[in-house]
Design brief:
Six copies of one chain form a homohexamer. In chain A, 41% of the residues lie in helices and 16% in strands. Chain A has a five-stranded mixed beta sheet with strand order 4-3-1-2-9, sandwiched between helices. Chain A has a four-stranded parallel beta sheet with strand order 6-5-7-8, sandwiched between helices.
Chain lengths: 275, 275, 275, 275, 275, 275
């Protein structure tokens, strides 16, 4: 089977500040035959200064554009799109109108990855603020029984990369606590901006517990899930379109004047296939 | 205790087509000391032709404005706001940023009302399309064990009032099926536009089963829940602001340039207090 | 809609020792148009010295009279009756035979109130003894996932008002623990005799956490739920009478010689409508 | 280990009409070394005409006496007591105050028995009226996932033995439906007065499905569970008395004047040990 | 009813090292009319040096023989067989092919016993390693809500009896922790080789908490459950053979050449009926 | 990232009758850089005539060899191994001792795939016999809420390919029923030998419902999951080795004389990388 794949990694904010970070991640972890587009939302419609989605109120501002982006990804022939935020915002909404393009999210992708190699997981988050909403999502997905704990490190999104040594220290403490006290068998980094820390943290835990404890980076997990979903598409397993997956009729979209025209992304970095 | 209450019933769409219907409902069912504002969203920012939220993609287009409306309701001194759609769209998002203004939704309000007078409930919906999302919500609220069934009548939102006799007939068949086959003890009308049918349907069921079967109209339930929440406010039980209920810092809203300025509603009908 | 409401607040014990406390509560928190009757059970049939229901064995002694009281409330034209004990004893039994009179309980009412303004709740109880039974009830209602914790303060029912300063101190410690360690977003006072402490405790928590944490008094919550249920009655949403809500046939009651004649309450304080 | 056992089978009503039926059952199914007392409640305190507990309101009238009976059983040195009604009324209340005497109920006993020989079960009940309450109990016990269905035969308690041939026919139809449509692997007869039908019904099902389908009689199951619990007592596994199992202090019982003196049963048939 | 019972207590390993321990237990706790065979697996097919089943990989090596043993027990006319390992290994597999012989396991038996005398339980295990798998089993059985905690004492199976005084100390600490911190109302010893400690531990807890806390020995519980299941057989309640309980056709077993011939046990101690 | 992958697809029976079928499947659906080994178990240790695992008793006979095969796969440097039976037999046991080799199963893989493109799923099985065990597994994985229904077609494993036209017809009827009556949004073929039917069935459903309904072939899903897991390994996310994932000590394996020496597979078809 042909392995040529085209996926979009959407950073669902109006700022392109982190796009390069995710492009690096993609370059390093994508399959050779995958072309990845790192995209962020249109700064004219989503506040370009808003650099985090830690609050539900912030998320509410990016839902419409994220869904429009999904439709655009479908029109542009992407096999799959990952919505790069651990809240998996607008995941099901986007999936409804994305045609044959698969939509995946870091939270679902990370848990699936973790449960391939462990019986349960803890999620390391920035602030306790995030916990209630994420717990709800974990339960909705059906993984409530596999959730060992949430561990907050007391950092906001933008702080993860401000002082990497300090962040590393906090992640180590949180992961140690999860394994020691909550009997976690794997760790999920519950923010796409915890990117860059997983390998060292896993190494630290190996030393600490004399045994492997996989540490899932949710951005990488989302990228790989998008590639996997692209494979599903090739097999023929595209989005269901019955019952809850039924999309709105095109004629009605026209009548309402919604989802018309191309969606313009704010920034776009194209990571080509290898060689 | 003073009973003076000011609540907003938000019709979360850009069209004001149904506002008068809800104003009539409010006039008939509100408490004497309650002032109700029926409001719809700004047609300049939400597609004014879009007259239903049956699809997740449509909902995605009203989330941002609904949250802005909630914040505006708080700034304008409303005690409570009901979001007039049975999906309870953006309920938790709105609640995060609504200050001391309580936010309620028809789905949660209807179930609470039903369980005061019955052990379980069936929800009559327009199309099976709606079922998966609503079922998810019912389970999230914790009421999965009390859900007897969903019953679809094969009507879209705008069709409920097109041929009332036919709608009545379909609601009767669906409710009868729910009670007879799924052992429902109460019926919830799962769309705010099923307004106007509950009393006759309850009467029909009484005749059919020789016993009372309460039929909850979700718009009325939402209005009464808003009044109840306004009472809570008077007692001092306003929105929690710790952990998952923590709102974004005002300084950050300013820095990001979001949620600034007044939100302008599309239409506004003021139903005054009695006498 | 007319707001004239007549509700009974039943203190389901044979002693009238606390009736005045609840009458004060009613005077302060009822709606202006509500008439509240504070009633306790017949001391000739329920041990008049028994001043608490902390044990299941004690509860068993008040079940029959509570159900009879509910039927009497219906015959006497009450819109709703609250059973004033956080175990919600005999709630469903009473509801079966209460005609069109709604029956509510402090536990269910408090949780509904808490979830209007928070995502979860902790319940402060007197002794750990109570926890297992109450937890069972919370789960039965469907709120297991929203329960942050129980916190016991080591006091028996009659001790809550013996040394108010000490009680206040213990409630503060328990509430602080709930918020801090169990991430509770709201607090429910899980005994009707914790009445009188909520406002100060909420103020304390505001100072402690620099943010609002609603503290639900379960007696007030029950009273307001009764008023809300009375509204439901006016709308037409009275007790279902099919399937599990079917009452025994009157002819059989006669044949068995049960539930005949008027039930005589032990004490009765009438709090009239305002003005 | 000595096998001498003394158990009480309580028919928790004020009428002794069915006591002989249960005595026959006990004679046939008890262990040789077991002495069984069939007892009913005091007709002076529980309406002696009331011959069923199909309604919650009826049950409310026997709760106090059932708990008193449990305490009396303990004082009289019974190893265990079965409360002979499939609702398992007052089970936990009785257990709280029954000292070292184990208390069991037909519902819990039947399910335990069924799951020893099958993966799931259906419960055949008289009327749909019973279903909601029993379902709640089954879920409380933790067996919600093992419940295949409830099947109602349209008979009241007193009708089961009125026309045995017709009852047999209805039980066959219900059991067949349970196995065929709900994939039940075992059948539980969900009323102690369905006594006398299990063996024939099991034979019928064997013929119908060419395979064994165990049919659990809940009275026999309760008796055997009582004998089993008596064994537990001999091993030393008596009622826990910490946390939720803590009984009220004897001094308080005295102060309140409750649970004093001997409880007088209404009727008592003594089935002696064999030989 | 005749009480003559023949049960097998299978120690599902290839070593007979512990058989005498279980024979002693049986002698002490069996019913007078019960004949118990303590058996271990065939050392020629199961590694005779492998003296524990702490790892899933070890269990995988005894599954086939355990199922063969169950079939053999049926052919040899045993009423019931207990599989003597707290993981309840191969329980459902064995039950499928054991004809009319009931199959029980220590985990299920212990929980059933515990819930007869308490509302919840904690399980004391050797190492945290065991917890995940056992927790899964507890949830599968439906008892997730009744599980207070697992408490590990840091001992491997073979270490429980190496230094009894130290083991006793560790069990006391663990049980105390369970009752004190997790509010356990009963204790289950979650390894058949914790045999011999329950009585003293229960006594210790009684002293420590001034109240009874039943301590369930899982080997004894399994034996008594086997006796109880034998009673069920006499009543006629043998294994269901429809749907999930359907056994493979004998003709197919023949065609495949599986489950042919007698299974030879490794060791067999016969504990006769009394007198 | 390099894409070179080596995975084993284990047909966990002693017969190689179907190996070629799975080799064809692998040739068609594997990634270009993947080398797949189709292997079956050693016919000398697993009954070579036994061509299905429809009964738990049959499964019990292949558990030990499947776990040994997993360990061998690890020793032979496979990145991942799929256990080719929809019961996911011995999945967790194999995973414990497979070193860094990931172990996946068709059931888990299929559900993950289905939920990427739909909100729920129905599983088409051969006989109702299979349902109880598979339902248990689905719930264990956390997907109970997403399970629309099981649909049995009345065929044994070996019959699926006997009369393809008839099988096709039965699958169509079952899938239609699932979508129509149980509101399934996707279909999972719940037996690896339903291989070869998915594409046509999906086409049929598209015609029947005028909309896409993905039909997941569980063998292909397992293969792709193995490839995905191999990617995880490359990223560093190998099996956790703490708590429940802790493997037995090598020294103990040696002492017990278990898992020593190479495991010899029964048959082995090597499907090389492309080009």
């Amino acid at each position: 089977m042909n392995a040529r794949t085209k996926v979009m990694y959407l950073n669902p904010v109006g700022t392109s500040a982190y796009d390069e970070v995710f492009a690096d991640m993609a370059r390093k972890f994508k399959c050779p035959d995958t072309e990845v587009h790192i995209a962020s939302l249109n700064p004219n419609s989503v506040a370009p200064e808003m650099n985090n989605l830690e609050y539900r109120a912030y998320e509410s501002l990016i839902v419409a554009d994220t869904v429009k982006a999904a439709r655009q990804a479908a029109l542009s022939g992407f096999d799959a799109m990952a919505i790069g935020c651990f809240y998996d915002p607008a995941l099901l909404d986007a999936r409804e109108i994305s045609g044959d393009t698969a939509i995946v999210g870091p939270c679902q992708a990370s848990i699936t990855a973790a449960l391939n190699v462990a019986n349960n997981f803890s999620i390391i988050i920035g602030r306790t603020k995030w916990e209630d909403q994420m717990k709800q999502t974990v339960h909705e997905y059906g993984y409530g029984q596999k959730l060992a704990s949430f561990e907050a490190v007391g950092l906001r999104v933008e702080e993860f990369h401000r002082n990497p040594a300090e962040t590393r220290k906090q992640l180590e403490l949180a992961a140690e606590r999860a394994v020691e006290e909550s009997k976690a068998e794997s760790i999920i980094l519950g923010c796409t901006l915890e990117v860059g820390f997983y390998a060292e943290l896993q190494k630290f835990l190996h030393g600490r517990f004399s045994a492997n404890v996989p540490v899932i980076d949710c951005s990488i997990a989302a990228l790989k899930a998008a590639e996997g979903a692209a494979w599903q598409k090739r097999i023929g397993w595209t989005n269901s379109r019955v019952w809850g997956m039924e999309p709105p009729p095109e004629s009605e979209l026209e009548r309402f004047g919604v989802f018309r025209g191309d969606y313009e992304f704010g920034n776009l970095i194209k990571v080509p296939t290898d060689g």
